[in-house]
Amino acid sequence: MSRYNLRSSNKQIGAEVSNILPIPSASAAAVSQIPGRILRSTAKSFSLPRPINENDSPPIPPKQAQDEPSSAKRPKRVKKLDSEASPIEDNPSEDKPSDTPVVVATPLDEEDSSSKSELEKGTKGHAFPVDFEKLMKRVKRKQAKATSIEEVLVLSPLAHFYKVVATKKRVKASLEAARTVGRGESFARKLRAHASHFEKHGHLLPFPPRKKDPPKGLLSKKGVKPAIERWLGKLPAGKVTPRRLVKFVNKKVLTRFKVHKTTITKRTAERWLHSFGYQSRRHKKNIYWDGHERADVVLDRERYLNEIQEVQRLSKDWIEVDGKTVEVIPQLIDGEKEHVILYHDECTRYANEPKDRYWLKDKEQVRRKKGQGIPMTVSDFITGSTPSGRLVMNEEQISEQAQGPVTERLPPNSRKLVFPTGKAGGSPHWNNEQLISQVKETLRLGEYLMPGIILVFVFDNSAAHQCRANDALHLNNLNIYPGGTAQIMHNTTIPYDNPYGNAGLPQSMQFPAGAGTRHGIELRGGQPKGIAVILEERGFVQWVSPRKVVKTEGGEKIVGECEKCKKAKARKPVDLDGDSDDDDDWDEDDDNEDDDNEDDDNEDDDDEDDDNGHNGLPAVDANSNNNSDEPSCCLRKMLASQADFLNEKSLLYQTIVSAGHKCLFLPKFHPELNPIEYYWAWVKHTYQDRSDGRNFANSKKILTESLDACPGDVIRRYLRRANRYASAYRAGADGPLAEYAAKKFKSHRCITKTDLSLAAAEKEARKKNGKSTY
After folding, report:
1. Which residues form a coiled coil (predicted)?
2. Which of 168, 194, 342, 497 has fewest C-beta within 10 Å?
3. What's the distance, CA 507 to chain centroid?
4. Which has the closest alpha carbon to 222: 529, 601, 564, 562?
5. What is the pLDDT of residues 630-672, one digit of tens each?
6. Across 278-287, 310-319, 519-528, least confident range
7. What is the DSSP letter of 420?
8. Cβ distance 112 to 37 under 8 Å?
9. CATH architecture assignment, domain 295-352+374-394+408-467+653-730
10. Residues with Cβ < 8 Å from 62, sequence gap 6 or more?
11. Can you give the residue ranges of every domain in the chain?
């Protein structure tokens, strides 16, 4: 077969190749624009017919013809392409004379060898330049529909490959695409193989099956995982650490299950904690989910939602209409009064409080002061019933107050700002006494600004807000028998459900003068009676001896305080490091259970917690009726079940209600229902952005300005956010779902059951796809 030398100009090559390409519209001018390396590679792939006679052969240069030996071997032919992949039609019959010039290949230089190798590995079967733009679009369409992580990892660089391959060699283009995803030459070779397969068949090469997960080791041993989970479940939040897990496993788990290991490392403990669902993260304020959905907390939440819904019906509101704030007057019926809801909370900022973020150049560093400085505690109220969102006087009202007597002047706003130092002569830390004083001033201020309205105070459920008066009815202030030191309590009325005919009778908690003696004990006037005598006067028991009390019905002896109530008052400390010798962390069947049932052994873990809560929750009040299932197990529990002791209100509540207004308490662990929490966040960012820590006077001024700077419409947005959470709970959402729905439907004033269903479906889909749901 004759061969033709391709060492000519592009125009000449284009003219010659256009004669052999079976494309009617091909022309030498068009083909001349194709790079020479592609034409040479293309020509090398064709097998053309041999001429019938020597006259049809191209002339051989004389010198080459003379020097060529007769026995010289012919150059090896380039392998013919498959009929499917080759764009060249079948060769004409050798019997028919051919007028087509025959292409002859000369020896290849280094560039030609690279092109040949590239052709065989990546472009085999392509006689013409490929439409890489269409291929890139096809790759992107497949990338959008990818179902496996392997496809995603290949299709993204493959799209970049087709973006640059039109102007670069395939090897260089594949290397560039591989570097976009941080890979090297090995990945580039695989990428070219995928590209070649994609160009021929329209899909990627099949991926090898994934390797099976390695065995879990010690955790796969029967009983080990449930035992560790039970121990971790007993630790309070924040007390779980790899060091404690190492100590517990080395001391208890390894010795009990007799494994070949003698110790585990801290790194192993960290991996185990990840497998149990723990993560190491920075502390930040958030909702306390552990107690958020506890049964008694959910009941308290329903109570609050019903109360606040009724109050909101009687309250003024401000809404945005066409970019303007419009006042909405409540529709009242006969006998109803307008209500104004005041949300309360405290916040503490510091004089030298550092910022969370700075804008710095490279190698710049901010020098912070060592201490945070003097604390500045703010106690304030916000409301949606005033244009400013706060309870404040205007300039005219302030001038009017300045003209009155000093002792009768009212504060210009409801805010209270203290600066506790902890030093002698300094201001005390914020306490219940200061809160009561602030509430009394706020009551006077509210009645002055809005006469004839009902103020509704909303407080969180902190222990400080539940402080009772010094003479309140409380079991902690009583002894079992007369005598000893005890707190003086106010008189009461025997509850109307008394079954012994004493309902409605007045009862004193102290002995009257001249009470005499009983069982050899002197009953002095003004001395507390004790639980036994109080119950005897109500008809429940009989005090028969100095240290013996029997029930009226049946004559059964009853103790002053049973063991269960004692344990409820004194919570058992948690064994943080596994040093105790008890076997509470083990089950009898731990050594015999099957691996398939390991995850089912912890369904009732919450039932193992004692009666005063779980996961670090506060203990149940000794004055409540929840310490024991039996209300008559002991004298202390019997008196705690009486209605007058159960319904004893806090001093804060009594102060507000006695003034003719209302007081509500938020359920525990529900800060999202208190809109002032969002107001504090706004104040914090504003204060930190402006504070320079120069001196205390300047910090105090900046804090006051930050508190006044929050616009009223921003405060009303915070109120609407809290209402969205409340509507989600009314629709049946739990805490996490309510949070997700409140963020998703930010433009809604309330969340309906339909919105909740959509949010639940989307949240579940994001969870399955491994995306964040917060």
Report:
1. none
2. 497
3. 53
4. 601
5. 678 899 999 999 999 999 999 999 999 999 999 999 999 999 9
6. 278-287
7. B
8. yes
9. 2-Layer Sandwich (3.30)
10. none
11. 10-122, 132-201, 217-275, 295-352+374-394+408-467+653-730, 471-568+622-648
